[in-house]
Amino acid sequence: MSDRLCKSAQTYFDRDAVRGYNEVVNPFPIHGESRLVDTVGLLKRLSEAHGVSGYEHQVRAMVQECFGRFADQTTVDTLGNVVALKRGTGPDPRPAVMLAAHMDEIGLIVRELEDGFIHFGQVGGYDDRVLPGQQVVVHGRRELTGVIGVAPPHVVPQVERKKPFPADKLLIDVGLPPEEVSRLVRVGDLVTMKCDLVELKGDLVAGKALDDRASVVAVAVCLEELSRLHHTWDVYAVATVQEEMGVKGAITGTYGSGRRSALPWT
Q: Which of 10, 202, 227, 239 could bridge to 63 as Cys pair (CB 3.0-4.6 Å)?
C-alpha cells in the first residue's frame, strides 16, 4: 500500500506539464530515502476516525497535524477545509496549483426511536445491500456500539426474502432498554460504521472511508516530496469537507483563494 500511494503521488508530479511548471532538482526518493509519512499508519488512523459530512472535526485535527509538518502555512477555512500552502520560489505573482482530496465520509443519522431500536436515514449514499449486520457507533450523549439488524427470514413473506432490505426497514440495536436508549440517543445524532483497517495480501487494505482518505494520504506524501524539491509554483494541499453532500468543500476551497489550477483526487 505504501509504494502504491507513493507511486500515485509520483505520477501526478512526473507529467511533462508539471515538469514545465517546476524546476526539479532531485528525483522522487521513492526507494532511496526514508519517508516521514507512514502511509499505512496514517491511513489506518484516518480510516478508523469518524467524520461524517459536516462533522469532520476528528479527522480534521489529524490532517492539520500531518499537513503542517511539511507546509509553510496551514489554515482552516470558514467551511472547515484544511488548507496547507507550500510556497514556491518563483517571482510574485506566482501561479498556484491545488491538490484536493475530501476527508468526509458517508454515514447514518438517527431518524426515530421505537421500543429501544433506532430507525435511521443516510448522510450520503450507502448501498442498502451492505448495511444488514454491520457494526456501528451511535454518537449520542455517549458513544454506543450497535449492530444493524433486519427481520429474520421466517417472518418475512416468501416473495420478499430474496430482495435487499431497504434502509427504512432496518433498525439499529444497541442492546439497551428503551428508556436508556431514549435518554442517551436523540433524533439527529450521527451514526458511523465501526470498522478497523485490515491489511490484505498483495499490498492492499480494506476499511471504511477509504473514499477519499486514501487520497488525503497521497496528498500528504506529495507535500513531503515537495519539501525535498525546488518548485517555482505555489502548491495548495486541501483536505475538503462535505464532498458526499454536494462537493461543497471543494467548491469553496477553489474559489476562496483563487487557485488557478486544481487536481481533485476523488
A: 239
The string of pLDDT tens digits covering residues 127-142 is 999 999 999 999 999 9
- Joined together, the cell numbers standing for residue 54 give 459536516
Would you mind telling me the total number of residues written for the chain in this entry? 266
- The residue with cell 506529495 is 222
Of 108, 100, 101, 98, residue with least CA distance to 55: 108
- Taking each continuous run of H as one helix and of E as one strand, the counts in the chain are 7, 13
Dist CA 213 CA 47 (whole Å) = 7
- Contacts (Cβ under 8 Å, ≥6 apart) of 2: 35, 39, 40, 203
Does residue 105 carry a catalytic annotation? Answer: no
Reply yes or no on whether the pLDDT at 8 is more than 90: no
Q: Where are the beta strands (DSSP E) in 56-134?
A: 73-76, 82-86, 96-102, 107-114, 117-123
Residue 166: name the closest of 177, 180, 156 by CA: 156
Say how far apart CA 56 and CA 200 lie, in whole Å. 27
Q: Which amino acid would we find at residue 29?
A: P
- What is the average pLDDT across 37-54? 95
Q: Which three cell numbers stand for residue 174?
A: 444497541
Q: Domains in the chain, start-ordered, CATH in brackets?
A: 2-105+209-265 (3.40.630.10), 107-193 (2.40.30.40)
0.85 cut: is pTM over it? no
